[in-house]
Amino acid sequence: MQLSWILKSYNELTLDELYQLLRLRSEVFVVEQQCPFLDIDNKDQSCHHLMGWTPEGVLAAYTRLVPPGLAYEQVSIGRVVTSPQYRRYGIGRQLMKESIGAVYQLYSQVPIRIGAQLYLKKFYESFGFEQVSEMYLEDDIEHIEMLLKVG
């Protein structure tokens, strides 16, 4: 599936884009995963937002690119989400490739640290991420920290 990828800072987002990305995050992270948590965490304003739009104008995929020092010492890719109606088209792989490319565009070739849901470990390893922490619970979901090293 062909998506249009748009990267914007928080201040560049339109109200509709902000609404759509918050709705998608809520649909998946709160409703689908049955995990009540405060998604709106006062980090969005300092981040860049990568959005994958369908030709019909539907937000199918999204990540939040977190600058160094806000979540981790390194740059981070967070809130990695694909709309349930667009899964099984390889969009998750496109999303991560685009996200890594966007980090390198914004920050040059730097290490990237993520907090990954444990069940997605092999998915992130396929991009070169390596587990660098023990398993921990975040909002009652098993997570690990992973690092994509430079070079």
Can I get a quick summary?
The chain has helices at residues 15-32, 91-107, 121-125; strands spanning 4-9, 48-53, 59-66, 75-82, 112-117, 130-131, 136-138, 141-148. With 151 residues, it is of the alpha+beta class. It has one domain (4-148): 3-Layer(aba) Sandwich (Aminopeptidase), CATH 3.40.630.
Features:
151 residues, alpha+beta, Aminopeptidase, 8-stranded mixed β-sheet, 3 helices
How would you describe what is shown here?
This protein is an alpha+beta fold. The protein has a single domain (4-148), classed as 3-Layer(aba) Sandwich (Aminopeptidase). The protein contains three helices and eight strands. It has helices at 15-32, 91-107, 121-125; strands spanning 4-9, 48-53, 59-66, 75-82, 112-117, 130-131, 136-138, 141-148. Strands 1, 2, 3, 4, 5, 6, 7 and 8 form an eight-stranded mixed β-sheet that branches. Strand 3 (59-66) and strand 4 form a beta hairpin. It starts with a strand and ends with a strand.
Task: Give the SSE layout.
Blueprint: E1 4-9, H1 15-32, E2 48-53, E3 59-66, E4 75-82, H2 91-107, E5 112-117, H3 121-125, E6 130-131, E7 136-138, E8 141-148
Helices and strands: which structural class? alpha+beta
Count of individual beta strands: 8
The topology string of helices and strands comes to EHEEEHEHEEE
CATH C-level: Alpha Beta
Beta-strand percentage? 25-35%
Q: Look at the structure and give the mean pLDDT.
A: 95
**For this structure, what is the CATH homologous superfamily?**
Gcn5-related N-acetyltransferase (GNAT)
Q: What is the correct CATH architecture?
A: 3-Layer(aba) Sandwich
Cα(first) to Cα(last) distance is 30 Å
CATH topology: Aminopeptidase
Low-confidence residue ranges: none
Reported for the largest beta sheet, the result is: 8 strands, mixed
